[in-house]
Specification:
Distance between the termini of chain B: 57 Å
Low-confidence stretches of chain A: 1-22, 106-116
Number of domains of chain B: 1
CATH class of chain B: Mainly Beta
Shape of chain B: globular
Radius of gyration of chain B: 22 Å
Oligomer: heterodimer
Number of helices of chain B: 2
Number of helices of chain A: 8
Strand content of chain B: 35-45%
Largest sheet of chain A: 5 strands, antiparallel
Largest sheet of chain B: 5 strands, mixed
Structural class of chain B: mainly beta
Shape of chain A: globular
Strand order of the largest sheet of chain B: 1-32-33-34-35
CATH architecture of chain B: 8 Propeller
Strand order of the largest sheet of chain A: 6-5-4-3-7
Mean pLDDT of chain A: 77
Number of strands of chain B: 38
Structural class of chain A: alpha+beta
Chain lengths: 242, 564
């Protein structure tokens, strides 16, 4: 039954029962996040719209990792004035702030926060292919995040020129990790004093694994290939995705 | 329509395969062979009872929701008192968890997949984990999580944004996380070195991950892709709309080394206009090889579903005599209002019977599973009062099986609904929604908790109730049956007579799964409470729902120290 509770069904039923809990579209959530951000985060620390403020760093246009944003918003930044907002704000507020800060970097520029770009028909097709569930284990969004959807293993720093370039993309950030004498292809997500977070690319779905820094070593290079990860797509499909 | 889908070739494969015995059995550490052999050998002793721990979602892999503990019994339950409560703070969508209890520590998850480890004797917080869900996918719809799994020094929890997360059992720190896609509300199931979980990805799938590394070990799609066997049972490319969500927790037979998982209906729900065909593997019970995920057999309870009768409810594995022959059974009180008795070695249907009183989507189901006189929901027919409702003859809350009494305990729901179809429009295949109604000829919807012979369906006793019974059932060797109601009462019945022996007002409605465990030589019974959005939806037939409140509370009971 649960799967049937799509948004339309829920709204209809809740209205039928004279009851409605707030639902937010992604756009509304970003807007809500901006309101919370303005009311809570700016003034003393961060600047308006994520610019540099009174001592806290700029957030806009830095390409901040999604997991990093969520962690810092919720748990704070030890040793700084950044508090753990998960303990102070309702979760819908922290989620909205995370969505808003995400919208300030990456593909969506700060000037277009919350406004999805108008796509051509081919580009829209490419977007659908990027997330296409029928490709499931081989779809782009398993390793890349766009517009807040997908897993941010590797940031899309630049768009390859053509399909061959996309297939043969050299992923210099893929290293060889060694743990307990066993090696695996890895992309480092975060390294701090207490822990190292790496994406393990051994299986078809990347796994974010957490190690004590001393428990894992890295060497440059790996035989992992981008062409194998996207082999399910045809050239035409990759062209649309580009 | 074809109803029995067990395939000969697969059967032969199975028969030819060696039966493996595994050392890793469910933990029954304090239960010294607690299951009595009944006269005539009708009930075979099995490792289906829990002992000091409640180690797995259904108690053990066999999903009996039965404990061999008997410190608390029919003789002394009147003295039982609350000893501690815990408020999770994640109260907006109730607490639907099944606590896991291991070595005196209780692990629970909340609607937003926050996880808590608590001292089972005192309720003291040991650690907590706040699930950082992707904000965009947490913005709407239902939020619920039905529990964690614990193994290999880790606690596993799924989330609404599709992640499966492994936490350090001692600290609650993340060890690994992976995004299988869709969302996960079910508790994972541990089978040997794998953590197995079903989810609501667009194409429903059951997936197994290595408990230590999170690496995907196998995946079985409930909707076969282009070119795969079963894809031909979908009209055109309607398979792309997916469905078949295996959104609950499966069972496992360690001797057969088979994992059993139920699947939901095809998408779009209700409206089958543009997905003609039997839509495999929608509405199926799947038997998958635990090591590979290979399909051993399947049984489709309802081909081409138009009522939203998922086959996802819990599957209770028991060995019982059927028509003079001991059989390995899989018993499922299905959403359709019928109980299906399957041979879990082969998928053969050994019997069916209705467990609710109001059924009109079909005239009957034959003993070998044939649907007789089905009345589909169709676009060309005005809405009619379909019984049972899309919540099912019972909701997801789980039944219990007591080998002591030989009975199963089913929280039946007599509720119907008008299904309002929506025709296809650009970009989709239509859909539908619903309005709950009383059963025809009744002034009100109602419930009843029944004690039933699982093989024959004969009702031993019935506990009537005026609202929905939405909490799971717990059965114990103390001959107790325990559950809660939406008026807030958690109560104990005599497992043999149905007589109410004890109750306690938890303060909020019950919509979770009670468990029992030992800590420091004392038996505890823990029950979650707090109301959910789904409960609110029944306000049309039960206006009293308006007074039922959200919360997220675990209440734990025991006998007074001097009485234990």
């Amino acid at each position: 039954m649960t799967k049937t509770l799509n948004l339309v069904g829920i709204v209809l039923i809740l209205f039928t029962a004279g009851f409605a809990r707030a639902q937010q579209s992604p756009q509304d959530q970003v807007k809500h996040g901006e309101e919370v951000f303005s009311a809570t985060c700016t003034g003393f620390c961060h600047g308006d719209k994520g610019t540099e403020g009174g001592g806290a760093p700029r957030l806009a246009g830095r390409g901040l990792n999604a997991q990093y944003i969520e962690k810092v918003v919720n748990y704070g930044m030890p040793g700084t004035q950044m508090p753990a907002w998960a303990l102070r704000l309702p979760q819908n507020d922290t989620n909205a702030v995370v969505a808003y800060v995400k919208s300030l970097n990456g593909i969506i520029s700060s000037g277009n926060a919350g406004r999805p770009p108008v796509l051509s028909q081919e580009a829209a097709h490419g977007r659908d292919l990027f997330f296409d569930v029928t490709y499931d284990l081989r779809r782009c969004s398993n390793c890349h995040e766009v517009g807040g959807s997908g897993v941010s293993v590797a940031t899309i720093a630049h768009i390859p020129a053509d399909v061959p370039a996309l297939r043969n993309l050299v992923m210099s950030q893929v290293q060889t990790a060694t743990e307990n004498g066993k090696t695996f292809p890895a992309v480092v997500s975060e390294q701090v004093k207490e822990e190292t977070r790496v994406y393990d690319l051994t299986a078809v779905l990347p796994v974010l694994r957490v190690f004590a820094p001393s428990a894992i070593k890295f060497t440059n290079g790996n035989s992992w290939q981008h062409s194998l990860a996207i082999k399910a797509y045809s050239d035409e499909e990759l062209k649309a995705i580009l | 329509m074809t109803h029995h889908c067990a395939r000969l070739s697969l059967l032969l494969l199975f028969v030819a395969a060696p039966i493996r015995l595994h050392a890793q059995q469910p933990n029954t550490s304090t239960a010294s062979n607690p299951v009595r052999r009944q006269s005539g050998g009708a009930i075979q002793a099995q490792q289906g009872a829990t002992g000091a721990d409640w180690p797995s979602h259904g108690g053990t892999h066999l999903s009996w929701r039965y404990s061999a503990l008997n410190q608390i019994s029919t003789a002394n339950v009147k003295k039982m008192v609350p000893v501690w409560t815990f408020q999770t703070g994640d109260y907006s969508d109730g607490l639907e968890t099944t606590p896991i209890a291991i070595d005196g520590v209780v692990y629970i998850s909340t609607a937003y997949s926050n996880v808590f480890a608590l001292d089972g004797a005192t309720g003291k917080l040991i650690w907590q984990y706040k699930y950082l869900a992707s904000s965009q996918t947490m913005g709407g719809g239902l939020k619920n999580n039905r529990g964690v799994a614990v193994a290999s020094g880790k606690v596993f929890v799924g989330g609404r944004d599709g992640y499966l997360v492994a936490l350090d059992q001692k600290t609650g720190h993340e060890v690994w996380k992976v995004n299988p896609g869709g969302n996960i509300s079910a508790a994972p199931l541990i089978v040997k070195d794998k953590v197995i979980v079903g989810g609501r990805a667009s194409r429903g799938h059951v997936s197994a991950y290595n408990v230590d590394t999170g690496r995907l070990e196998w995946r079985f799609y409930a909707v076969p892709g282009a070119g795969e066997k079963g894809n031909e049972t979908w009209e055109g490319d309607s398979w792309r709309y997916g469905g078949g969500y295996p959104w609950t927790t499966g069972s496992y037979d360690p001797e057969l080394n088979l994992v059993y998982w139920g699947t939901g209906d095809a998408s779009p729900p209700f409206n089958g206009t543009h997905r003609q065909g039997i839509d495999l593997y929608g509405n199926c019970v799947l038997a998958l090889g635990a090591d590979t995920g290979a399909l051993r057999w399947y049984y489709q309870e309802i081909p081409h579903d138009t009522w939203d009768y998922d086959a996802t409810w819990e599957m209770v594995l028991m060995d019982r005599e059927v028509r003079g022959r001991m059989r390995k059974l899989l018993v499922q009180a299905s959403k359709s209002g019928f109980t299906f008795i399957l041979d879990r070695e082969t998928g053969e249907v050994l019997g069916t019977y209705p467990y609710v009183e109001n059924i009109n989507w079909v005239k009957t189901i034959t003993q070998n599973g044939g649907l007789v006189g089905r009345h589909d929901v169709l676009e060309e027919e005005p809405p009619w009062n379909v019984c049972p409702s899309n919540l099912g003859g019972k909701s997801w809350n789980e039944i219990a099986y007591s080998p002591n009494t030989g009975l199963i305990y089913i929280p039946a729901l007599e509720l119907c609904n008008h299904i309002l179809l929506r025709q296809a429009r650009s970009g989709d295949r239509g859909g539908g929604t619903w309005v709950f109604k009383e059963p025809p000829g009744h002034d009100s919807a109602y419930s009843h908790l029944d004690a039933i012979d699982p093989v024959t369906g004969k009702r031993q006793w019935s506990y009537p109730y005026k609202f929905e019974l939405f909490a799971s059932i717990l059965a114990t060797a103390g001959d107790l049956v325990l559950t809660g109601d939406p008026e807030g009462y958690f109560f104990a019945l005599d497992a043999r007579t149905g007589k109410k022996l004890w109750n306690f007002q938890t303060g909020v409605p019950n919509r979770g799964s009670p468990v029992t465990y030992m800590a420091g030589g004392r038996q505890y019974i823990a029950t979650p409470s707090g109301w959910t959005v789904v409960g609110d939806m029944t306000r049309g037939v039960w206006p009293e729902t308006e007074t039922w409140r959200v919360a997220s509370t675990l209440t734990v009971f025991a006998l007074p120290e001097e009485s234990k």
